[in-house]
Design a protein that fits this description.
By secondary structure, this protein is an alpha/beta fold. It has helices at 10-16, 43-47, 63-76, 87-95, 113-125, 167-176, 189-192, 227-239, 246-257, 259-279, 297-303, 321-329, 377-393; strands at residues 80-84, 104-108, 129-133, 149-155, 180-184, 202-206, 220-224, 283-287, 310-315, 346-350, 367-371.
Length: 395
């Protein structure tokens, strides 16, 4: 029998949710179902499909997908979850249904780049206007609300620059005007931030990162507060033809089982490296939500249960492109790649100034975004120390 709803502790939910061995030959994991066509035995059954329920056509979901959705909804305390093909599809699928031509959306200036692109190109062409706001605006967002503001989008901490937002204050203002609050909670996962307790209505995740956890599958998950938000999101995703591929869904469900222990190690090693970086003379700011340098750190202390392994740092003074390239090119463990959340450590340079419109970010201040993986932390520290030495040697 499914143990749905029987447990409240996150580690137990991670291990048992979405599984039903009693109805699967005793096999622990839900099987992978590949399907397009589903056969109905009678005309009556063919004609009386219940929307959003059951298996009706491959694109609308398979039992493997429903198992993942059930487990992830339970973990975050959602009414229901919708699995889609990528994190970006989760962002667009989680927002689009709440907007129509003539509406207005507020988006944090620290949002993930492609989220901005979707707002600035796709939504703009369909007559939706977007205003970017200071991630630290808090209740001051009231001044930006318009009668036609239908969505307030938050992402905390922010992509690249890690500002931690005052989500309860923002959500309270948004709800006063009847706007829907959509949050990208990829960084914290449901283990470290509980969006529904803080007033969020729809929570999107790039499950590609920590949930999959092994850098080998793309997936998005959209958790919905209640039946009404679920119906809007599910309808949108079905209308747009969004779909989660069965093998990727299986890998995601498998990754979910070990997410708790992995995240605890990402947190521990991440904090260790972040604190050590702060002691290095070349390093200026360490933008790690759990450390005081990070804008909005007080909100982190108040609202979060832990931190994951992604953060950034800036360097003191001016360094040539050549010196910076030598630092990065010679890294032995850290790889350079546009992702994070896997078991392996990564480091990339980034230029937040390229994107910002509400709060200018010094064009010239480059950040180094670091993802701390599951390797030995001493080895990681040595790799970074060698890199900083190369930086100085090539100054
Ligand atoms: C915060 C955040 N949200 C969404 C996404 C998009 O996820 P995906 O690459 O699975 O489309 C990413 C990807 O890097 C991300 O960092």
């Amino acid at each position: 029998m499914s143990k749905k709803g029987k447990f409240s502790k996150p580690d137990t939910i991670l291990a048992v949710a979405g599984r039903d061995p009693d109805n699967n030959f005793g096999i622990v994991n839900p099987p992978v179902y590949h399907a397009s066509t589903i056969l109905f035995p009678t005309v009556e059954k063919l004609n009386h499909r219940v929307p959003f329920e059951g298996v009706s056509y491959g694109r609308n979901g398979t039992p493997t997908q429903f198992a993942l959705e059930e487990a992830f909804a339970e973990l975050e305390g959602a009414h229901r979850c919708v699995a889609v093909q990528s994190g970006l599809a989760a962002v667009t699928g989680g927002i689009t249904g709440f907007l129509k031509a003539g509406d207005h959306m507020l988006v944090t200036d620290s949002a993930y780049g492609p989220t901005r692109k979707y707002a600035n190109t796709f939504l703009q062409r369909f007559g939706v206007e977007t205003t970017y706001y200071d991630p630290l605006i808090g209740a001051g967002i009231a001044n930006l609300m318009r009668p036609n503001t239908k969505v307030v989008f938050v992402e905390s901490p922010g992509s690249q620059t890690f500002e931690v937002q005052d989500i309860p204050a923002i959500a309270a203002v948004a709800h006063k005007s009847g706007a829907t609050v959509v949050m990208d909670n990829t960084w914290a996962t449901p283990l470290f931030f509980r969006p529904f307790d803080k007033g969020v209505d729809v929570v999107v995740h790039a499950a590609t990162k920590y949930v999959v956890g092994h850098s080998d599958a793309m997936l998005g998950l959209i958790n919905c507060r209640d039946r009404a938000t679920f119906e809007t999101v599910k309808n949108t995703c079905m209308t747009l033809g969004f779909h989660a591929a069965p093998d990727d869904v299986y890998l995601c469900l498998r990754g979910l089982r070990s997410m708790g222990v992995r995240l605890r190690q990402h947190e521990k090693s991440g904090l260790d490296i972040a604190r050590w970086l702060k002691t290095r003379p070349e390093v200026d700011k360490v933008l790690h939500p759990a450390l005081p340098d990070c804008p909005g750190h007080a909100h982190f202390k108040r609202d979060f249960r832990g931190s994951s392994g992604l953060f950034a740092f800036t360097l003191k003074g001016e360094w040539s492109d050549e010196a910076e390239a030598r630092m990065l090119d010679g890294l032995g463990i850290f790889g350079m790649g546009y992702s994070w959340g896997g078991y392996e450590s990564l480091m990339i340079p980034a230029h937040p100034g390229q994107f910002r419109t509400a709060v200018p970010w010094n064009e010239r201040t480059r950040i180094y975004r670091v993802h701390i993986g599951l390797e030995d932390v001493e080895d990681l520290r040595q790799d970074l120390a060698d890199g900083l030495d190369r930086l100085k040697a090539n100054a």
